[in-house]
Amino acid sequence: MHITQLASFNASDITIEAQEQLYQGFVHVERISLRHRLFQTLSSSANVQDELYTPLISRELIRRKEAAGVLLYDDTQQKFALIEQFRIGAIRDQDSPWQLEIIAGLLDGDESAESCIRRECYEESGCEVDQLEHLFSFYPSAGACDEIFHLYSANVNLPLEGGIFGLAEEGENIKLHLIEYTELNSLLHSGRLCNAAVIMALQWLKQHLLTR
């Protein structure tokens, strides 16, 4: 099997010694003490049990709900949609804490990613979405957070102009931008895009435009 399809280990190669909840709010934070298998144990020369695992490791883990996002584009108008909003994680960004993003949100309970996207699209852009194309599911920051992000695209009928959207009761103040396809390359190289989902989505759009 090709290396890109094969994981060296799985969850059974981790031994959790202790778990402690440190904080519970918008996110949850846990401290986990564990040991995990070493790559050296894949060698046939490894035969001492104490050498199969790491020493005890302590890590803080941010627990967060799954999220889903979508790049809305309109081949008829030759435009795509991005939103702009304040983000606490970018509060010290040298350019601006107001980030350009795709429409996205957290899954509510046992809600599907597709249902979440349709709800968020209406709240954040006024657009209704029929067909969704799944692009990727990925961990945005697996070094510290267990969030999984489901990324989609959708060809929709975009409005003729942007506007202000979001739920005031949730502290949302969201500006919808409609951007011409001709501006895609300059935006990708502008340094204005600072999160993985929007960069991945626009790289996909670039490929879509090349293969139409």
From TrEMBL:
It is an enzyme of class 3 (hydrolase). Coiled coil: none annotated. Pfam families: NUDIX (PF00293). Mg(2+) 2 binds at residue 104. Its cofactor is Mg(2+). Its EC number is 3.6.1.13. One of its GO terms (molecular function) is ADP-sugar diphosphatase activity. Mg(2+) 1 binds at residues 120, 124, 172. It comes from the Bacteria. InterPro entries: NDP_pyrophosphatase (IPR004385), NUDIX_hydrolase-like_dom_sf (IPR015797), NUDIX_hydrolase_dom (IPR000086). It catalyses: ADP-D-ribose + H2O = D-ribose 5-phosphate + AMP + 2 H(+). The keyword Hydrolase applies. GO terms for cellular component: cytosol. Keywords: Hydrolase, Magnesium, Metal-binding. Residues 63-201 form the Nudix hydrolase domain. PROSITE patterns: NUDIX (PS51462). SUPFAM superfamilies: Nudix (SSF55811). One of its GO terms (biological process) is ribose phosphate metabolic process. Acts on ADP-mannose and ADP-glucose as well as ADP-ribose. Prevents glycogen biosynthesis. The reaction catalyzed by this enzyme is a limiting step of the gluconeogenic process. Belongs to the Nudix hydrolase family. NudF subfamily. This is ADP-ribose pyrophosphatase.
